[in-house]
Structure formats: C-alpha cells, structure tokens
Amino acid sequence: MIMIDPVITALLAIFAVPFIGAFLVGLDRKLTARMQSRIGPPLLQPIYDVIKLLHKEPIVVNRVQIIYAGLHLIFMVLCVVLLALGQDMLMALFILAFSTISLILGGMSVRSPYSRIGSQREIMQMLSYEPILILMLVGIYLINDSFMARDILASGKPLLLSLPLIFPAFLMVMAIKLQKSPFDFSTSHHGHQEIIKGITLEYSGPFLAILEITHWYEIFLLFFIITMFWATSIPVGLLIAAVCFFCEILLDNIMARLTWPWMLRFMWTVALGLAVTNVLWLYI
Amino acid sequence: MVSLLKSVINNVLRKPETRCYPVERRAPFAGSRGHVEMDPSTCTFCGVCARKCPANALTVSKDPRSWTLEPYKCIVCGYCADICPKKSISMNPNHGLPGGI
Amino acid sequence: MSLMNTVAVSPDRLLQEVAGKYRQRYRFATMTCTDIGDGYDILYHFDKDYELCNLRLYLKKGEELPSISSIFFAALLVENEIKDLFSIPIRDLVIDYGGRFLLTEDAPVAPMGREGCSRAIDIRLQGAPEEEDK
Amino acid sequence: MHLYTFLSLLLIFGPLIFGLLVMLAPGWRYKTPVIVLSALTIMAGGILLALQGPFTLSIDSGLMKALPLIELLILAIIIYIGFAIKKMLIIGLGILQLAIGLISDMLPHSVQAHVPTLKVDLLAVIMVLIVSVIGPLIVMYAIGYMKRYEVHGPEQMRSTGLFFFFLIGFLGVMNGLVMSNDLKLLAIFWELTTLCSFMLIGHDKTEDAGESAYRALWINSLGGAALMLASFLSISASGSASLDELVAVGSLLPLALICLAAFTKSAQLPFQSWLLGAMVAPTPVSALLHSTTMVKAGVYLIIRLAPGLGGTRMGQVVAIAGAFTFALASAMAISQSNGKKVLAYSTIANLGLIIICAAIHTPLAYAAAILLTCFHAISKAMLFLCVGTIEQGIGSRDIEDMEGLMRKMPITTVIAIIGMVSMMMPPFGMLIGKWMALEAVIMSPLVLFLLIMGSALTVVFWSKWIGRIQTVAYHPVYKIEDVPFSMFATKGVLLLGIIAAAAVVVPLFKRVISPMAMAMFSETVVTSRSWDLMNSASAFIEWPLFFMLALVVPVLFLVVRGIKKSHIRQPFLCGENLEGAKTTFEFRTLMDKGESARIRSYYLNPLFGEAHLTAWANPIAIALIFIMFGVISK
Amino acid sequence: MNCREKSPWIVHFNCNSCNGCDIEFLACLTPIYDVERFGIVHVGNPKHADILVVSGAVNHRNVRVLKNVYEQMPSPKAVVALGACGATGGIMADCYNVLGGVNQVIPVDVLVPGCPPRPEAIMDGILQAARLLNVHQKDRHAGAEVRLTLQPVSEPEKV
Amino acid sequence: MPGSKSIIPFGPQHPVFPEPLQLRLVLEDEKVVEALPAIGYVHRGIEKLAEKKEYTQNIFLVERICGICSFMHALAYCQGIEMLMDVTVPDRARYLRVIWSELHRLHSHLLWLGLLADSFGFESLFMQSWRSREAVMDIMEATAGGRVIISTCIIGGVRRDISEELMAEVLKTVDVLERDLEIIRPVVFDDYSVKQRLVGTGRITSEQAYDLGSVGPVARACGIARDFRETGYAAYKEIKVTPVTETGGDAYARARVRIREMYQSIDIVRQAVRDIPAGDIAVPARGNPEGEVISRVEQPRGEVIYYIKGDGTKNLERLRVRTPTFANMAPLLTMLPGCELANVPVIVLSIDPCISCTER
Q: Which residue from E123, E2, E3 is spatially nearest to E53, judged by alpha carbons?
C-alpha cells in the first residue's frame, strides 16, 4: 500500500474506504438480525439508507450544526488518509479525537436536551477511551521505536505478541466506538433508549448521511488498527479482525446496555489496568 | 454471567424464524375475525346490526335498501355477525386491506 | 343491589374518618364520583385484605371538597382527576394540576357532569401555504 | 550607551514612570492617551529589543551595592503590610527573608566582572516579547474594562489610578525579572511581582479580595524566602549568585529551592489555592499577572535552570510534580462552572505541562516548553479578556449563564471559541506543543501516564465550555454587542496573533526554537528520531490539513448558504414544543404551561469535585516536594 | 435504484390508542415479522423518519404533539394511521375528549383497518406508504406545507 | 454546586415509552432530582361514553380501555353486570375465562419483558421475548378469533368454545412457552448486565408500597402477598393460586415476580385445560342491570376495580374503572427521585405502566 504513489493511496483511502465501511455495517446488521433469529436487511441497506438520506429535505435547527458535521467528516477522512499514508499515528489519533469533538460540539450547538445529553455522554466516552488509545500507541512505540504507521506495517514481528493485554483493551474501545452494548450511550445507535438518538438526534436528511458516512470511515479505521496488530501477514490480520468483529456483534447481542458511570469505572480500572500493565512490562 | 450466549449462537446456526410475509402468506385461523362481510341475498335490512354496532360503523336503510359499512370505523368485534337474525353477516378471516384517502 | 360496607360521612367529618381508616391499616383503593343532579355522590373505597370498605359522601354543587392526599398520597391522582372531570373544587391538594390533569384548555368543561360536554371543538385541515403566517 | 542598554532600562524603569504618570493624570480624558502612549512605547521597546537579539549587560558594581537597600525597603513594606492586615504569617515570612537577606549580604561577595547582571538570551527575549507585547495590549484593554468597572462597581473599587500604576509598573518589574541573571536582583523583582499581585488582587477591597490577596502574599513570600535561601546558599558555596554560575556548578540544593519558589509562583499543587483566589481581581489582572506573565516567572526559572536539572533524579521528581499538577488541575477544572476558575485551573495545568518539558530536558522537550509558553500566553490572555468582556456583558462569569451567548455577543463568542479551540485542536500551537511533549516524555512512564490522563481530562472542560457558548437559536436575532473599542481591538489583535502563530508554527519552530534547542544541546547527540518526527509534523501541518480545510470549508459554506429559512425547524422536545416560541426552547409540561428546557453541563462533582480531589492531591503534592528535596542527598 | 422505497424509517406516535395497535406495530419489528427485511427501522424520532405511524384517535392534548411530530419530519414524508381509531376514531369517536381520526389534523396517506390490525396488515400499510414517498418527492417544492389550525366552531357556552 | 439544574421533558413522543406520557425531569448531572408526570395524552372519556352506550355494547368498549389486558377488562365488567343481574355463569365458561385470562397474562408479561429489555438496550432479549409471545398470540387468534382484543367475554359466559383439538394446541403452546422461558429466565435472573441495571433500581420498601396502595407485581415484589385471584372469582375457586412474592422491592424483584408468574400461569392453563368440565358456555341474560356493585379482577399489572351503577335501563348510570397502573402511579413517583436518567425508563417500565388504562 505504501509503495504506491501517495496521492493514489490517499484517493483510494478517500473513495474506497466508505464502501468497505458500508459493507461492514451491512454485515453487522445482517449478523445482528441472524443472532435475533431474523432475516435482516439486505447487505447493501446502509447504502440505500444513505442515498435516501442525501435526497431528503435538509432540515436543521441551526446552521452551525452543518459545519460541525462537515468537520467531523473531514477530520475522520484525514485520519484515515494519514494512516493509509503511513504517517504518525499519534497525530492520527489526535485527529480522530478532533473528529469526535466536532461531533460533540455539533450535538451541543443545538439547545435540544437529548442532543446535549448525548454530547455530554460522548465526552465521557472520550474520557474513558482516549487514554487507552494513547497507551496503545506508547506500547507500539516502545516496540517499534516509532509512531509511524508505515514502520509498524513494515516491522518484522506481529504486535499482538508483544501487546497481548492492550489488544483486549483496544477491543473494549472498539465496542465503544462501534456503539455496541454494553457501551452504546451517546447515540443509541442500536435500540431505543432514554436519550433517543442522542447526539445525532438533531441531524436529519443529508447531514445525518454525513454522520453515517463518517461512521463508515471510522469502522474501517478500527479494522485497520486491528489488522495492524498482525501486520506481518495481512490475511492473518484480516482473520483476526473478522473474528473480533464477530465477537463485538456477539457481545452486543448478549449484553444489556449499562450506564456511563459504569463505563468510566470499567474503562479506567479494567481496560486502563490492562493497558498500563502491558506498557509497563515493555518498559522493563 | 452471559446467559443469552447459547441461544444467540443457536439462532445464528438455525434458520431464522421470520415468516416472509408478502411472499409467503400463512392461512388465517378458522373463525378468525378479519373483516366483516355481508350476504345481500339473505339480508332483510332490518337494521339490528346498525343499532347494536358499538362503533356505529354500520348504516342500514330500508327505503333505498342499503347496507353500508365504514371499513375504517369497524372495530371487527363480530357483534353484528352474532346478532344478525338472518345470519347474513359473517366474519371473513382475512384481514382488511389498507387503503389511502 | 347496593354496595356493601358503606358508611355515609359528611364533608366536615371526612378527614377524621379517613385518618381513622389510615390508622386501621386500610389502603386507599380509589374514589368514585357520580353527578346526581343537585350534587355529587362521592365514594371513597378503602381496601384491606381483599375487603373493600366505602365512605359515601354527599357534596352539594358548588361546595368545596377537602383533599385526603395529605393522609393517603395515592389519592392525589384521582382527586386531580375528579377536579378535572367534574369541576369540583378540591382544597389542599399535595400537587395541584389546576384542572389540567387530563383535560386541556380546549377540552370540554366538566365532561363527566350530567350536562355532558359543554363545549364543542372542531379542528380542520387547511391547505393554506406557510407564507401567510406573517 | 548601546541601544540595548537604553532599551532594557526603558523596559524595566519606563513602566514605573509611565505608571506614575497615569496615576497622576486626572480623569479618563488624560489617562487614556497616557496609557495608550505608554503601552505603545513599551511594545515598541520590547520589539526593538527582540530585534537586537541576545545580549548581556553588566551593571556597575557600585550600583549593585544599592541592592540590599532596595531589598530592605521591599521587605519592610511586606512586614508593614503584615502588621497592617494583622497577619503573623506575613510578618514572620518577611522577617525570615530579611534575616536571610542580611546574612547573605554579610557574606564575602565576589562580584565577578565576567558574570553579567542582566542576561538577555533567546529565552529571555521570548519572555520579554510576551511581557511587553501582550502586556501592553492587556493594559489597553483595561481602559475600556475599568471604565465600565468603575461605573458598575461599588465605591471602594474606584482606585483606578493606583490600579493602573501597579498594572503598568508590573510590566517593568516582570521585564526586570526575566532579564536579570543575578539571583539577588531576581529575588528583588520576584518580591516586587508579589507585591504587585497582592495590591491588584486586593483592588476591590472586599472581604473576599482581602482574603485572596493575603493568601497570594503569604504563599508567594514563602517562595520568596526559598529564593532568598537559594541565593544565600549559592553565594556561600561558590561566592556567586548568578544563574549561569548556578547552572554550571549544578549544586542541587539551591536548584531545589528555586524549583520550590517556582512552584509557588506558578501555583503548582499544593500552592494552587492563591491563583484560584486571585480570580477575584479585575479581569485584566487575571489576564496579565495570573495567566500570561507573572505565573510564567516560575516556569521561566525552571526552563532557565533546566540544564542543571536535566538528567538528575531531582529533575525527574520535578517532572513528576509537574505532571501531577497537570493531571489533577485538569481534573479539578471539570467540576468548575466559574469561567475564570476554569481558566485558572487550565493555567495551572499548562504551567505544569511546561514544567514537565523543562525538567525532562531533551531537545524536543525544551522546544516544546518554549512553544507552549508562547502559545499559552497568547491564547490564555485572549480567553481571559473574552471572559472579562462576557462578564461585563451578561453580569456573570458562570459558564451555565453563558447559554446563548452567540446571540447576545456574537463577536466575543467567536473570538472566545477560537481561543478555546486553539487550546486543544489543530492547527493551533498548543496541540503541537502537547504532541511534542507526549513524544518527549515517552521514556518516563509515570509522567507519560499522568500526561495522557491530563490531556484526556483537558478536552472535557474545553468542549463543555465551547458547547455551552456556541449554541444558537434556530431563528437567531443577533445583537451586535456594545463593547468599548479598546476591549474589542485588543482581543482582535490577540486573535490575529493566535492565527498568525498557528500559521507560522513550522517556520517559527525551524528558524527559532530548534536552533535554540540545538544551541542548548550542542554537546549532546541529537537523536535522529526526534528530528524525523519534526519533519513529519511539518509535513502534517503544511499540507493535508490545510489542503483539506481549504477544500471543504467553501463547500460547507455553500451548503450552509443553501439552507433556507423553511429548513430550520424547532429542536426535538418530545413533540411538546410550545408553538410560536421562536427563540426560546420551551416545552409544554404540567398544566400546559411552557417551560424552558435546560441542560446543564456535567460537572461530575462526585468524581472530580474540587474539595475532595484537593483533599488527597495536596498531601501527595507536598510529599512530592519533600521527595524533591530528599533525592538531593542520594 | 429506488432507495427511498427501500429504506423507509419509521417514527411511531401513539395518540390515544388502547395499546392494541401499538403492540401489533411493535410486533412487526420482531423476528416473526421482521420488517427490517424491507429496510424499515423504528428510529423513534421525527427528525430521522420518513413515515409517521400513528395509532389511536386524536384528543385535545395530543393533537399538538401529533402536529409537532409531523412538522419536524423532513419531506418527503408519509403518514400511516393504524386501526379504526386512527382512521376515524372508531368506537371512541363519540368520546368527549376525542377529536376524531388522524386525518383531521395531518394529511394521512394510508389507513390500516382493523381493531387492532394484524401485523401483516400493518406491514402492508407501511409498504404502501413507502411507495408513496416517491410520489411525495415529486411535488416536494411545489406544494406548500399543510397548515393546521385548531379553532372552536362555536363560542363556548357558560356552564 | 453552581449552575441551575437541568430541566427536560421526557415524553410524550419517546420511543422508550410505547405510550405517551410526559415526565418533567429535573436533573443534576444525570441524577433525577424531581420527576412529575404530565398525563392526559390518552384520555378519551370512556367512562362517559359507557353511560351512553348499551350495557352489552360496553363490553367492546371496556376491552378497548387497554389492548393488552383487554380480556380482563371485559371479564371484570361482565362479572360486575352478572352480579347485578344475578346471572350464574356456566362452569365451562368460568374455566374458559381462566384460560384466556392466563394467556393474556402470559402475553402481557412477555410483552412487558420485551419493553423492559428495550429500555435498557438489550435488543436480543426484546426479540427473544416477543418471539415467544407470538406463540401466545397465535393460540389466542386460533381460539378466540383475535390476536390482541379477543372479545370473547359476554354477559353470562363466553362467546366461543375451545374445541378438543384446540385445547391440545393450547397445551402445546404452553409447552413451547415453558421451553422458551427456560432461555429467558436465566437471562433475567442471573445475567451480569441485566442485574447491573435492575438490582437496586427503583427500590421502595414494603411499608411504602403498602401505604401508597401499590397493587400487582409492584406490591408482590415488596413482599406483600396480594393477588386477587386468591379470592376465587371465575374458576380460581377450583384452581388455587398462591401469590408469587419477592422481597427486594426493586426492579429486579418485580422482574422476578413476573417471570415466576409466567410459570404459574402456565401451570394454571394446564390445570384448567385438564379440569375443564363439559357443558354450556353461556346462559342468556335478560333484563337490565340495577343497583351498584364493585367487581374486581387481577390483571397482569394488578387489581382492577370496576364500580358499576345501573338504573334499570339498558344504559348504565355510572361506570368507573380504577386500573392497576393508576394505583401504581403513586409508588412510581416515589421511586423516581434520586435515580439516574438512564434508569428512568427502566423504573417506569418496571411497574409495567399502562397509560391508556390510567387515563381511560
């Protein structure tokens, strides 16, 4: 991937990634349906949804929302591009965080109770997973002596062997990012709960489509990072990613959604504990 | 701890329980109250059904002999079928079809 | 057939009687109000071990009814409801919805009274464009 | 006389004279031009000095003989204050300093000719720039601010002349502080800043103000005493009290004492309480002394002394203490709804961050420390000015009351948002600094961990605040706010500064800061890794982000333009929106009454409450200071 | 590719219903009927929805909610009224607090008969409404929004 | 701490509540400080309409007070009229009434479990319980001709008989249901995440529950052994029912009560099918009701009270319904303050509210 001209890689990342993401979302919905003994929507359903949304009336509560939705998308795309180009992962993660912050600010720019609560909860989610993501990078740095994604991809040994504890911690982060039970707090992406659609509630039509497309990029990003844990052999990496993806969906289906104070407690004890332990032994 | 795991995995492995409704239709249960039907050949237009209908969905008149049912007002209770002296009203087990305005 | 275990009570004795019921570990079940022309027939139903015990109160129209919600909190909702549906003034409600518990401003006044609906409301669909709003 | 001699004298003594002039000028009619003129003079002087570049200046030893007298005078004032406000602590600390000062003066003091009294290296140049460019801006802002303050404030708050004397005079004191190379001279300026701070915090003469001023005085006097002791030890050990000498000798005890003094001045844990209390002062004071300049004196000293700290155990402890402050102050900021207190905590946290970078002392860290110092000064000054404007505009500094500010004061709000964004988001400098800091501390696990947690916590309170003020109604009627020109213009200049700084961060880094770091670490081998990183940083900043922003912002703009009025609908309130409520957010509830829907931000008091975090954070911080002294003996 | 028909998202509002229609509507989402096969998702808020499913008749208090929910939906949109109550008020039509069917307040596209209608009937109705979304798309800019007013016919009498 | 508190509307259009109900919540962070309900979104005025319709037509009206426990509404109404008119219901009809009652209870509890699971985001459990519920719906349609509102109860008996083959089907259905319950029970009883959400949520003491007049599973979950079936209406004289009680008083205890009641209902159905005597299913009722009577029936949500006053005409003078949710509203109001926002729907659904019952 790195060998190709960076411009082509970047363009590929910008235009091909959403389709992979959409496919994964479709797969997710289909699998979830099967786990509930349903047939479920067609595999291309996410794409139908987004095309439909793009053609709907652009309703907003205020114009500021739109800018934030746009920034959310741009930062996310930028993050994917940076990774695809093998750039500094720490910066990529910062950019990812700003993408999320844009979403949060977009949710808060509307004086709608549920959107606001969703934003506050998204902040709590960030608070609980951000340290783990950075610790993961620290772990990677300690092994590879570099924050560069291209160095990780080029390194000789699989990361998973050196980061066995950070990997599950990352999976927990992934569950938060994918809005899966037991973590689905800020958007109620799956199922209806007390804050309806939370942060995305006040977005509709094309702007909701933007958020959806961003989510596709995000899913690809998470997949990419998982694959990186076994970068020596891409098929093995993909297999691991697929297994993890299945496990996430399984988890979503066998657990109730809990509350965000629980998440904060859990992430700051269990997941952070795992990550810190792993990083510490890399130091020694 | 995670008690639904087994059932969820079973669901994946088994065929979904979904009835693909518009494609495959299940035969309605016998005696099911789907919608009201009237047999004009036996009806005497006595108007009992109209008087007794709880939802006032029926209008019957003797002079121009007419029997009208407002399908969107009918609560499909089947009371008219029960009390019809000539048993000309019956319940069709298939559900009534949606319509526009 | 008439109601068993029914004791008549006057409005001024009501709170004492109800407090007595509370002391006897009766639970508040509900209240029934019927418009009987010149007044209201109000029944308080209390329950203990599947046995109902009723207090019957005759309230002249225009009189005020004391609330028992300070003794039985549960009576709050039904008293608000009676206030709405019969337009009976009830004093000392713990939470007073001010006659907007079940009904709105547009709804008929005292719909459960003998006279029934005293106001008719019609809503209709109009195809007028939005611009006229200004 | 060289130009730089003149300039440095102008920058140190000029403000005192200007201050006197302003104080004596009767009424605003005369005060305003004098203030503007003096501010512009100081600004010009600062810039000229910066253009002159680094220099050193030795002051005649005869003049230096007068130092003890000045010192005596200042300490006498402090003791007098102690008597005046009847606080034994102040008197005690004053007498303690006096005693140490007198003893050290009696020591044989070899004033070496080759050691300059004033040393203006690149670091000092940067500090002088911060003081004499941002400082005068804030002073000019204060014109408009104090005019309003006089009108709205109670009778006792009207000592504006004295206020400006201290505010402008402080600039000279601060310039002197950053230029001086002699510890004794430094200590005098140090005490003077403390005095200025005391007077300005107590400006309102309310009970609260008095209490806060007293707290600031005693905590800073404690630092002053530590500084005195350090100079005494230094003189007694090597016979010289110059900073250069101190670093070169590398004796740790004076260094530790100076670090302690720096901690008090920079309000690091456990000394944070005075800075929080100082927020009762009029906002220009908070902006100038308590975020941009005076509190930077502490970190400036540590950066100056960094070569002596680098690689030592003590340096590590200092870094940990800084990191601890960074994480805990960020956490405490979450539970605050008072805007100025949030800014105060954020200041404390960022000073902690700079201390980490200084104490780690690698080229990257050093560069990060300097970058952070610059960017923090601009952004924070602007944020304080914004809060000051907002406070006067809406009569509250509570973040919760800033709901819908976008409608009431759109310009200030936009400036404030950019200021806050510059504290945490790309392409602004603070993020680059933080990023570099992260990479710099990667080999010290504890610092790294605290840094990571702190960064995550930082995001929480900034995004909460931005979220609160940026809200606009769905049919907003913007009000162009009525803000005095001085308040508006100074913020505008600072805003331009932020944007310019963000735009030039890469050249600035390459041309100025990395040569500085290079010069500092000339002997050590600069690891290729770090510099590679820098390249990627520049690559990142230069093309993808700006490219994408340039590409997408016009598109977004077009989209926003395309939204018609009919597309703007009410927010979702479970279907119970009150009809006709176009700007409020009322829903119908009990009894069909309308009520405005409100969502307070989360302050997470059970988790991050100030009181209970402080209760265990302060003991740990005190322990860290003891450890700092303890490791010296190892 | 006709995506509008393939992904109708639903918001459900219970006006005055006795729950019969509600639970039959919810039953449509469950494995046996599984409307997600058609891309139908119960999104639960008007801002995301294409189809408004209303059960029950309109009363004085929920009329404004119904109106509001409808107004907050982005066009093209369609309305399905479930059951006898939704269509005309059914057995409740004569109640003092019932204003009548949903079409008294907002334009209804599909009526589903029954009391309550079976899930199959509801599915028929929703799919029919989904097809109508295309029709609405065409005159989206032409037709003005329906203005709804609530006004008393006669002066209220004094009690 | 500084800052005002948050005030938000919760409902009426809210996907967590299947019915419109507004809670005006006052929050501090996410802790509920104050919760007040605003209702009236489902108020129709059925009590007044019942005075205008004939007493026979009223059966269909009262069934539509609530679509979930419609049969029990009709049962309570018919039993009241039967008392007034002194009609003795044939034995077979009494047994049939019990069978349909218990089928209704089963479907209602499964429905409730699904909604509860939905309220805490457990979609699979929602799907699982509603899938099991379809079996009940099918047998209901097969035996009574309607899925939800079955309209089988009439004054003097029932409208339809259940044939032998259908009785076998009923038994088969409850067998299937029992098997499905074996999947659901451990999830509700033991699953970590479910217990995290339910245990301790919306706890009231036994004392509070008694004083506030709570009924049904809410009362039984506080250890108050009250189940009106004990008094032996319909065929409960022959089929003994002991109240299912728990002591926790929280949402978890209420869930346990309902799950255990489902097993109990399955047993009752089996017993009723086994013991059902042959004979008529209805006796004709002549004349018009006169006098006043109170009729009570145990619904899935608790005890419903019908006060019926007839004046000898075919129209009633007064029909008053006190539904179980109405009685459980007061306990609900005491449960809400102090809970987390996330638990508001869980607590509200834990009393299994039926707003259309409450407001009629």
A: E123
Name the nearest CA neighbour of D393 among D420, D423, D415, D419: D415
pTM of the model: 0.88
Bigger pLDDT: D179 or D580? D179
How many other CB atoms are found less than 10 A from the CB of residue A137?
23
Residue numbers of the domain that contains D573: 549-596
Q: Which residue has the tokens 């103000």?
A: D209
User: In this structure, are residues E52 and E105 in contact, taking their beta carbons and an 8 Å threshold?
Assistant: no
Looking at the partner chain, which of B4, B5, B18 has a beta carbon nearest the beta carbon of A38?
A: B18
Do A108 and D425 lie within an 8 Å CB cutoff? no
Looking at chain B, how many residues does it have?
Answer: 101
The verdict on D428 and D562 lying in the same domain is no
Bridge-based pairing state of the strands F31-38 and E78-82:
unpaired
Closest Cβ–Cβ partner in B7, B31, B52 for F183: B7
Instruction: List, edge to edge, every strand of the sheet that includes B99-100.
Output: B99-100, E110-112, E78-82, E51-55, E9-14, E41-42
- F10 assigned to some structural domain: no
Is residue D95 packed enough to be buried (19+ CB in 10 Å), middle (13-18) or exposed (0-12)? middle
D423 and D522 share one domain: yes
Report angle CA F176, F177, F180 to the nearest 5 degrees.
90
- Residue in A closest to E7 by C-alpha: A49
- Host H or E run for residue F216: helix F216-220
For residue A262, give the nearest of F16, F125, F196 by CB distance: F196
Burial of D235-252, coded b for 16+ CB within 10 Å and e otherwise, reads beebebbbbbbbbeeebb
**Contact exists between B and C (3 or more beta carbon pairs < 8 Å):** no
Determine contact, residues F330/C78, Cβ cutoff 8 Å.
no
The burial of F225, by beta-carbon neighbours within 10 Å (0-12 exposed, 13-18 middle, 19 or more buried), is given as exposed
Confidence of residue D538 (pLDDT cuts 50, 70, 90): very low
Is residue F29 assigned to a domain?
no
Q: What interface predicted TM-score (ipTM) does this complex get?
A: 0.86
Chains C and A touch, using 3 or more CB pairs below 8 Å: no
Instruction: Tokens for E145, please give them.
Output: 């929004």
What H or E segment, with its residue span, contains residue C91?
strand C90-91
Residue C112, domain member (yes or no): yes
Q: Looking at the complex, does the CB of residue A191 fall below 8 Å from at least one CB of chain E?
A: no
- Written as six digits, the tokens of B79 are 């009371």
| Kind and range of the H or E run holding D228 | helix D207-238
- The residue type found at D436 is M
Query: Which residue segment(s) compose the domain that F170 sits in?
Result: 43-359
Question: Both tokens of residue B57?
Answer: 């969905």
CA D90, CA D317: separation in Å to the nearest integer? 29
Give CA–CA dist C116/F315, Å, rounded.
15
Do E58 and E98 contact (CB within 8 A), yes or no? Answer: yes
Percent of chain D with pLDDT over 90: 5
Query: What is the mean predicted confidence (pLDDT) over D76-80?
Result: 86
Give CA–CA dist F69/F321, Å, rounded: 13
One-letter amino acid identity for F140? Answer: M
- Percent of chain A that is helix, strand, coil (3-state, to 5): 75, 0, 25
Which among D17, D22, D47 is positioned nearest to D32, based on CA atoms?
Answer: D22
We report the CATH number of the domain holding residue F324 as 1.10.645.10
The pLDDT tens digits for F78-100 are: 988 888 888 888 888 888 888 88
Judged by CB atoms closer than 8 Å, whether chains meet at A94 and D536 is answered as no
- pLDDT surpassing 60 at residue E127: yes
pLDDT of residue F175 exceeding 60, the answer is yes
Q: From D357, D314, D363, select the one nearest D524 (Cα to Cα).
A: D363
- Does residue D35 form part of some domain? no
D458 and D512 share a domain? yes
Partners of F64 on chain B (C-beta within 8 Å) are 75
pLDDT at E158: 34
Q: What is the mean pLDDT of residues C25-52?
A: 86
